[in-house]
Amino acid sequence: MQWLLKGLAILLPIVITIALVRWLLVTVETGLSPIWVALVGEQYYFPGLAFLSFLLIAVVIGFSSRWLWINSLWQMPGKFMNKMPLLRSLYGTINDVFDMMSGKNFADESVVLVSLPNSQLQLIGIVTKTPGQDDDKLSRNLNDDQVAVFLPMSYNVGGYMVMVPRDCITSLDMTPAEALQLTLSGGLSKTQHSSKP
Length: 197
Known about the structure:
Elements: H1 2-40, H2 49-64, H3 68-83, H4 85-102, E1 111-115, E2 122-129, H5 137-140, E3 146-152, E4 159-165, E5 169-171, H6 176-184
Antiparallel strand pairs: 1-2, 1-5, 2-3, 3-4
């Protein structure tokens, strides 16, 4: 039984990763292949062309987004979905997760160690809001000595947001993506980097 569990622990992450990559490839290929068949014909189409075109489109969109007026065009579908009652929550959550994983809108010292008052317990968190931002409702409600910190939970897509005094946090030499990977895996991540307060 011990060897079975050890074998599953080795095989399942590989199988699940391959299955997710395969799902992405099949989904993109299935969606875009009819367009390419209509454009170039069945004889010139080859498997993988749709996915290669998807990657090329992503590069073009990413490159062109550095111009403000073009970037505003790419943002229009997202703004439309944010106005739809059913899509707003789903799109917003997915968008926020990708922003957090990419480190977007985070300062260099946004990953912190939160010390709980009257306790030796410490938690890894990510500073999401600081006071003084007039265009943000939460920021306007923070005291000058407070910050809002997101505390991710292990093995769960979720967490807590707490408002804590600045003297309860210590900056960590870690990116938000590294902090999320480390926390979500319960500290078992094999790709974690050494970090120091």
